[in-house]
Write a structure and sequence with these properties.
alpha/beta; 14 strands
């Protein structure tokens, strides 16, 4: 089984200096390692060439974000399994073996995510994917080990191998044939939540997505866009709405769309009360962009099959904010 670890880079020399050594040290025997460079203007590529000659370089012509960056680079790579790995991830010894074993055992498993812990506090799960993701009825994403901003401590409660709904783009393994069969990542997202759309489409086509807790990586998170950056708020709110348009089943469609617009409005008011009006404006911009792209995404929707029963929990917003349920095990 041929594995290709592909790290997307844009002006990220400091991150490569810090995190690429662990990838090379703990992966080289089982995988080929690539840097997919999104038209960087710093000296990060020269750094890799001088210090890690075994790492292959793919140079993209433009910075097309996460989605286009990977789509362009993966056209150049022949492998059975792609690992899409963020440049701010530290991997651990023997992290690949459990992943490879699951792919070998189950041909219908198309995507796998390892345990994602916080690099800054290695006892905690990390926001971007924790122990595997789900979406609620309204398309809001959450994770085992992370509900909204509440992060659980890793006490071995998620050391299992289990089916999940979506895998984090911080460290996502996918069969190459499935990636290309689905047309890769949707480039209209640019960045954030495009991996949820990819996972949604993967399941709609009959494949499984798994979390493998025997493999652990540590993610910094926010190395490209900090949580306080309004651009991140904009992309998360807009792309989550686009996921709803593309993928929510017909019986829920109008109800979910109107409910989401209302709930997003409440989130905007909450930001105003918290004296963060720039994030309220980011939500407004997200909605303007959503309206602008609505017909385009309706056309995409018509081409896709739909998974009918995607919502494990009715409303994560209600359970978290109204009922105070902050741990995955407490969700009903």
């Amino acid at each position: 089984m041929k594995i290709a670890i592909v790290i997307l880079n844009w002006n990220g020399q400091k991150l490569l200096e810090q995190f690429l050594p662990s990838v090379v040290n703990f992966s080289s025997e089982e995988a080929a390692i690539y840097i997919a460079d999104n038209a960087s203007t710093d000296s990060s590529i020269a750094y890799v060439q001088n210090n890690f000659p075994s790492v292959k370089i793919i140079k993209n012509n433009v910075n097309g974000g996460y989605a286009k960056g990977y789509n362009d680079a993966l056209k150049e790579i022949e492998a059975d399994i792609y690992c899409l790995l963020n440049s701010d991830v530290e991997v651990t010894e023997n992290w690949l073996k459990p992943i490879i074993n699951v792919f070998k055992r189950d041909e219908n498993t198309a995507i796998i995510q390892p345990k994602l812990l916080d690099f800054k506090d290695k006892t905690k799960f990390e926001y971007a994917g924790a122990a595997g993701g789900f979406v609620d009825l309204y398309g809001y994403p959450y994770c085992r080990g992370r509900v909204f901003n509440h992060l659980e401590t890793d006490e071995g409660q998620f050391n299992d191998t289990t089916d999940i709904f979506w895998a984090s783009g911080a460290c996502l393994f996918i069969r190459s044939k499935v990636y290309h069969q689905l047309g890769g990542l949707d480039e209209d997202y640019f960045a954030h939540q495009e991996e949820i759309d990819l996972c949604w489409r993967t399941q709609n086509n009959g494949y499984k997505i798994k979390y493998v807790g025997a493999s652990t990586v540590y993610h910094v998170g926010g190395a490209t866009l900090q949580e306080t950056n309004p651009q991140k708020t904009y992309l998360n709110f807009r792309n989550s709405l686009l996921n709803v348009v593309k993928n929510v089943p017909k019986k829920w469609f109008l109800f979910v769309i109107f409910s989401r617009l209302l709930l997003d409005g409440i989130a905007g008011i909450k930001f105003m009360i918290e004296l963060r009006p720039i994030h309220t404006w980011a939500i407004l911009k997200a909605h303007f962009s959503f309206y602008k792209n609505f017909n385009k995404f309706l056309k995409k929707r018509k081409k896709l099959s739909k998974k009918q029963n995607y919502n494990l929990h009715t409303s994560i917003v209600w359970q978290y904010f109204a009922l105070g349920r902050k741990k995955f095990k407490d969700l009903k």
